[in-house]
Design a protein that fits this description.
rod-shaped, Beta-Lactamase, alpha/beta, 5-stranded parallel beta sheet, 4 domains, Rossmann fold
Amino acid sequence: MRKDEKHYRILVVEDNPGDFVIVEDLLTEQILLPDITHATNYKSAFDLLKTGNTFDVILLDLSLPDKSGEQLVSEMLEIASWGCPVIILTGYTDIDFSIKSVSAGISDYLIKDDLNAPMLYKSIIYAIERKKNISQLEISEKKYSDLFNLSFQCMWLYDPQTFKFIKVNKATTALYGYSEAEFLTMTMMDIMPAEDIAKAVEDLQSGNIKNRAYKNSTKHRKKNGEIIEVEISSTEISINDKLYKSVIAIDITEKNQYENKIIRAIIKTQEDERYEIGGELHDNVCQIIAACQFSLGMLQNAVSKEKIHLLDQCKEQVKMALIEIRNLSHRLAPAFFDNSNLEDAFVSLFNTFNVSEQAEIFLDVDESVKKYPPSMEVQLNLYRIMQEQLRNILKYAKANVIKVIVFIHNQKLKLEITDNGIGFNKDAAINGIGLANMKRRTELFSGKFEIITSPGNGCSILVSIPLSASN
């Protein structure tokens, strides 16, 4: 039989010389040159370990002259925790005590009368390898703990069933303003703005069911009440056979504000160009066409009766072109560019689309909006949202009733556009350019954009902008 040639340092704590000889023989049957140290009592073993001697494994008799039983096991495990597994060798069969010992941290519990060389060797190898794995796991956990606690990014664990925080790092407490102890009494809902809680629960539950990995942008509320925008990355993690969610949160408030400033500047430039083009169409092209219309009128008596119908057709076509260009110029340059108000701008928009020819339209602008009008920039974006949705309704909805309401509620400026048309599948259309543009324009002012629709049930577009962002 080939013996194990590896070098093993083994401490045998045994007061019976005969038993020690037996253990020594069993070890040498399987291991070529075992390095065996013998201690006859607890104190000798303690001194050996305390003075820096290291061993790969300790074989411990349960009955020593100076210590025995549970007390011996407990104290030996304490000093052996410095890096060495402990295997009990005893002449007593006590199932309860063996279970208790293994639970306490003993690697194995062997009965001397049943012992043989392969059994002892296998127990030693398993104990050493298990200890290595545990040590590696502890190192890994230490690295993870350091990474978690010292990370500059906000990180936390939460229970996906109760949404309770399980662990948070220092970056999280620094950003949100709550202490670690406070966080551990809270749930994810406690850092959500009140109006977002229902949607947040829906999103989190959907993420739990559909995806193990989850990424989303949302808003959170700090302890001082400040609302911040965060990008959330979440994934499942198993700890002690229980699944938790590990979260990394990045504060993107400043980044979004900067991007919004750039987008708003781009949109303003586009609107200025539209207004210039609209003005040119209205003031120059329309004047040219109007002059052409006048000249055609002067030809009335110079055209023969046989050709007069052609002149009338030409005059009618010029008239239609003039109306179309005026409508186009009004859509490019909304009325409130000329110091009008949102209600007038909407009425003008309805007229340029000839909405009344296809549907009955109801417009209700609350007195509070008229008295405290939002900034021209906000009005212009509401106008563009209205324009985009009108185009959608007239092209696709087959509606005969359109209702538009503008009002102020809970410190928010709200626009609701509702039609009784055929509706559509929201999930299939949500990524459309038109809807995306309306959503983007709303979010430029920290607002919320919502679509309520389904096939056969019409459509409602809901826009909500905080008053603080609309002035």
